[in-house]
Amino acid sequence: MNEDDVRSLLREVEDPDLGDDIVSLGLVNNVELREEVAHVSLALGAPYSPNETAIAGRVREVLGAEGIECELTANVDRPAEGDVLPDVKNVIAVASGKGGVGKSTVAVNLAAGLSQLGARVGLFDADVYGPNVPRMVDADERPQATAEEQIIPPEKYGMKLMSMDFLTGEDDPVIWRGPMVHKLITQLFEDVEWGSLDYMVIDLPPGTGDTQLTLLQTVPIAGAVIVTTPQEVAVDDAKKGLEMFGKHETPVLGIVENMSGFRCPDCSSEHALFGEGGGEAFAEEVEMPFLGELPLDPRVREGGDDGAPIVLDDGETGDAFRAFTERTVNNVGIVHRQRLSNGRERDEPAPDPSS
Ligand SMILES: Nc1ncnc2c1ncn2[C@@H]1O[C@H](COP(=O)(O)OP(=O)(O)OP(=O)(O)O)[C@@H](O)[C@H]1O
After folding, report:
1. Which family does it belong to (predicted)?
2. Among the atoms of ligand 1, which is closest to the Cα of residue 297?
3. What pLDDT was estimated at residue 352?
C-alpha cells in the first residue's frame, strides 16, 4: 500500500453537496504514509458542519475497511485579503434589508447553535445604532483591558462577545457619523483579543449603510445570511441587501425566513400571520439557497429578553433554529469547497498567450 493507493481509495468518498468524489474535486491536499499511518490533509473549511463531519467520517471508514489507520487534518487557504482576523476561520455576516425582522435574534441563535455544535465562536454586534446582543445572551460581564490595551471579550454560552453596548452603556443615545463608525469598527476588530475562532458571527445593522460597507471592505467574509419575514415589503428590502453583497462579491450563504408561522402556545398549531412562503419563493427567484423557516413563537422573544437563546431549547422551535444553523454551516463548507475545486481545475497549465 502506498500513497497513490490511498488516493485511489479516497475516490470512493463522495462529496454530498458537489456531486463528485473528493479526489476528482481536488479536495485532498496531501497524503503521506508514515509508520503505517496515513496522514491525510483535506480541504475542508467549515468545522463542525454536519456534511464535512460526514466526509471525514467516510474517509476514516473507507481507509479503515482496508485496515489503514489514518490521521486527518483540515485546511483551506483563505483568499489573500490582508491580515484582518488571521486566526478566525470563517466570518459570517447576518444582514437584513429592514429593521425589526429578527436579524439580531437570528445572529445570536446562529452563534449559540454553532457553539453548541462544538465550534469556537465569536459574536460581534456591529449594530452600532441599536446594539442588543448583550441583552439577548444576558452578558453579565464587561470586557476587560490588558496592560497592552487589548480588549478581552467576555464569554457567554462558550461565545466571545463584543458589542458597542459594552463601550457606550445601554442608555446612552448613540449618534455616530459615518467616519466614526468606520474607525470604531476597525478598532473593534484590531484591538479585541478574539483568539483562534472557527466562526465569527457579525450582527450587521439593518439596511445598506456605512457600517455594512466598512465591514465588507475590511473583513474577509466567508458568507452572508439574509434575514427576511414572509411579507412582500420585507422581501423587497432583502433584495437591496442582496444587491449590496453582490456588488462586493461576498458569497451569500442563503436566505432565512423569520416569523414564518405563528406557533400558538395554547393549541400548538401554526398560523401564517404574515403570509406564507415569501422567503422561499424569493430565494428561488434569485437562485440562492433557502436556509429555512423560523416560526414566530413567543418563546423566541422571551428567550431574547431573558438571555437564553431558543436554539438551546429542546422544543420544535429550537429544532427549526438548529436545522437553520446546520444548513448555514454546511453552506459555508460548500462555498469553500466550490472555490477550491474550481481554483484547482483552473490550476491546470494555462495556455501560452504567445502561441
Ligand atoms: N421568530 C420569532 N418569534 C417571536 N419573536 C421574535 C422572533 N424573531 C424575533 N423576535 C422578536 O422580535 C423583536 C425584534 O427582533 P430583533 O431585535 O432580533 O430584530 P432586528 O431585525 O435585529 O431588529 P433591529 O432593527 O433593531 O436590528 C425582538 O423582540 C425579538 O425577540
Report:
1. Belongs to the Mrp/NBP35 ATP-binding proteins family.
2. 3
3. 45
Lateral strand order in the sheet of 28-34: 28-34, 37-42, 69-74
CA–CA dist 277, 288 (Å, integer): 15
What single-letter DSSP state applies at residue 99? T
pLDDT score of 350: 41
* Distance in angstroms (rounded) separating the CA atoms of residues 98 and 103: 9
Mean pLDDT by 10 residues, the chain (355 residues): 93 96 96 94 96 97 95 82 80 90 95 97 86 83 83 93 76 60 77 93 84 80 91 76 81 92 70 69 88 93 91 94 98 95 59 44
Q: At what angle do helices 210-218 and 232-247 cross, to 10 degrees?
A: 40
Burial class (CB in 10 A: 0-12, 13-18, 19+), 347: exposed
Q: What is the pTM of this model?
A: 0.90
CB 2 within 8 A of CB 318: no
Which amino acid makes up residue 316? Answer: E
Q: How far apart are CA 135 and CA 219, in angstroms?
A: 25
- Is 163 annotated as a binding-site member? no
- Provide the Cα torsion 262, 97, 326, 308; round to 10°: -60
Instruction: Return the pLDDT at 79.
Output: 61
Take atom 2 of ligand 1 and give the residue whose Cα is closest. 296
Q: Is the CB of 100 under 6 A from ligand 1?
A: yes
Taking the C-alpha atoms of residue 253 and residue 325, their distance in angstroms, rounded to an integer, is 11
Determine if residue 181 is labeled as part of a ligand binding site.
Answer: no
What is the pLDDT, as a whole number, of residue 349? 42
Are the C-beta atoms of residues 225 and 90 closer than 8 Å to each other? no
Question: Would you say the C-alpha torsion 317, 104, 202, 277 has a positive or negative sign?
Answer: positive
3-state percent breakdown (helix, strand, coil) of the chain, nearest 5: 40, 25, 40
Q: What does the pLDDT read at residue 134?
A: 83
Ligand 1 binding pocket includes 296 (Cβ within 6 Å) = yes
Q: Spell out the domains of the chain, with CATH numbers in brackets.
A: 3-77 (3.30.300.130), 88-325 (3.40.50.300)
Query: Residue 132 Cα, ligand 1 centroid: separation in angstroms?
Result: 10
C-alpha cell at 279: 422567503
